[in-house]
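Workshop exercise sheet. Pairs work together: one partner reads the sequence aloud, the other fills in the structure field after running the prediction. Swap roles for the next sheet.
Pair: D.N. / O.F.
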Amino acid sequence: MTAGTARKHRILVLGAGYAGASAAGRLAKRLHRDDVEITLVDAEEDFVERVRNHQLAVGRELRHRPFDAMFEGSGVRLKFARVTAVEADRRSVRVESAAGEEELAYDTLLYALGSRWNDHGVQGVVEHAHEISSRAGALRLRSRLESLAPGGRVLVVGGGLTGVEAVTEIAESRPDLDVALVARGGLGDWLSRKGAAHVRKVFGRLGITTHEHTTVTAVEADRVVTADGKAVASEATVWTAGFATHPIAGAGGLQVAGNGQIVVDGMMRSVSHPEVYVGGDAGYAMGSAGKPLRMSCATGTPMAWQAVDAIAAELTGLKQPKVPLRYFNQCISLGRKDGLIQFVGADDTAKDRVLTGRTAAYYKELVCRAAAWSVANPGATVFSQGRRMKREPAAAVEAA
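Structure field:
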C-alpha cells in the first residue's frame, strides 16, 4: 500500500443471530463496498431460529438456512469461529476455530453476541438441567424426551414467556408424559386478566400441573428441591429461568450494567468506547417509555437496525436517525394449535386487549416467519443503498 493510501474501513459484526445477521446485511446495503470491509463472525454456519427452539426440542424439523447462501453476493465476509475475547482498548477481537486462534482488528465493532441461559448459581442446574437457548441444548433435550416412556415426568422451571411456550409445546406433542411447570410467581401474572385466564385454560386442557409461587433451590438427576424443602420428581428438567449475557464484554473493558449488558446511548453506541455499537440482548438500552428494554427479539432487532443506521450516518455524514424503541405486543405460542397475543403499552405493560386461539397461533407463526425472512433477506428493506463514506478516519490511513 502506498503512503497516504486509505484502506477500507473495517466493520466487525460479532454474532449472527436475529440482530447480528440482519445488521450485517443492512450495513452491506447502506455502505459502498469499495469503502468498507464487513466481516460477520459466528460459531454456527447456518442461522439458528432461536424462537423456535422449543419446537426443535419436541422433534419438529426447522428450515435450514446456511449463511453462505444468505450472504452470497452481498459483500459480507463470513468468519465461522467462536469469539473468545474482546479487547476494546486495542480495537481487536480474539476468535477460535478449527484452524486455530486468530486476532481480528476493527475500526467499528457491532457487538451482537446475544444472551444464553442463566442458571442463577442454583446448585445442580448445569449438571442436571436442559436448556433451549441454543440449538445444541434443544437437540439434547429432544434426545432426552424421545427416551422417556409414557408416564415420564418432565418439569419446566421458569414461568416467563420461554417457559410457558416450552411446557405447552412438550405437553401437546407428548400427551403421554406427566408435564409440570414451576413458577416463582403466579402463572401469567405479567399478563392481563384475560391473558392469564387463557393461559390457565390451555394448561388445564393440556393437563399441565403448575407449582406457583415456588422457588427452586437445587436440581438433582431425578428431582428438584424447592425453597420450602419439598421435592418435585422430574426425569427431564428444563431450565428457562431467564437469560444472561456473555462476560467477555465487561472483561474486555466495555462499560456494562450490573447484569453484564453493555451500556449504550440512544444510538446504541457504547458509552465507554464510541467505536463500539451494540444490537440485541447484549445491549443495556432505554426504551421510548424511559425503562430498560428487556432481552427479546421484539426489541433486539430494532436495536440492531438503530445501530446500523447510526454507523452509516457517522461514516457517510448523514443525519443521525432515531428509531422509537417500544413494545406493541407479546406473542406467545401455546403449542401448535393455540396462542396468545397480549397487547401492551410502550413500556411493555399489559393492556386488556388480547387475541387467543388458532388466530393467535397463526399470528405468532407469521411473526416468526417474518423475523426469519428479514434475516434470510438481509438489507431487503433498505432503500438508500451503497452510500460513499465522507472520509476515512485518520487511523485507517497507512503508510507504506
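Discussion prompt: The domain at 121-239 is CATH 3.50.50.60 (FAD/NAD(P)-binding domain). What would you look at next?
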